[in-house]
Amino acid sequence: MSRPEIEIRDLHKSFGDTPVLRGIDLEVAQGEVVCVIGPSGSGKSTLLRCVNLLEEPTKGQVFVGAAELTDPDVDIDAVRRRIGMVFQQFNLFPHLTVTENLALPQRRVLGRDKASARRIAAQNLERVGLAEKASSYPSSLSGGQQQRVAIARALAMGPEVMLFDEPTSALDPELVGDVLAVMRMLAEDGMTMMVVTHEMSFAREVADRVVFMDGGTIVEEGTPEQVIVRPRHARTRHFLSRLLDPAMAEVEEGKHGKGDGPAPAAGRP
Q: Which residues does the UniProt record annotate as the domain ABC transporter (predicted)?
């Protein structure tokens, strides 16, 4: 059996005396899309940032492929080259064109020559539907276009894994669709993805597996049907009821009960 593309073992993270992650165990197979959902403050973004060691775990192990990122002797820069990350904010250089934003990290990190970096930049701008914006500056782009440029920049580095931390949360609602369409395309192409999101329709349609977090733990995980449509835990039902359309929430309550009983202890089912 092949090794998971991402493997997280007994992951803990505290900030000072405040625990944020309380023993996370999670695997993501090659080509799998895992959406992580949950209320604000549940540890979702911290989990994602621990996967590429932007946050150093307090305890536990993180593997990407065969490399253990939490090994003190690991070449962290080499492993990070295999991991693309897209944040809530776009973090584009305002004084550089779109092409230059994509080419610069390739040249500095991967050592590509200028012509190769620009060629790969053009390929990935085409991939996200923004070839015509190659010579534009970020200030002339909509928020959705800037986020698609940020995705193209990550893809230009040739990652094996993509991490998305609420990539649409800073966008106006009418701009969200184009970004999610690019992410759907990546999923169809077989990219391994961990996505922290509140976009439940995206999670239902695209995710192979959905993980619901609360209080720094995984409360439940399973297929979108199991977690979003027929959640087993009261905490999951309560969270989803606040996101669903009110009429849909009423239907769900009628099917599965209102979940008024005490929330079950955190843990994987």
A: 6-240
The 10s digit of each residue's pLDDT in 7-57 is 999 999 999 999 999 999 999 999 999 999 999 999 999 999 999 999 999
Q: Which residues contact 134 (CB under 8 A, 6 or more apart)?
A: 97, 98, 99, 121, 122, 125
| 81 close to 109: Cβ distance less than 8 angstroms | yes
pTM listed for this prediction: 0.87
CATH 3.40.50.300 fits 1-82+161-168+191-246, yes or no: yes
Q: Where in the chain is the domain with CATH 3.40.50.300?
A: 1-82+161-168+191-246
| Whole-number Å distance between alpha carbons of 21 and 242 | 23
In the chain, what is the straight-line distance between the N-terminal and C-terminal CA atoms, in Å? 23
CA dist., res. 196 & res. 185, Å (int): 17
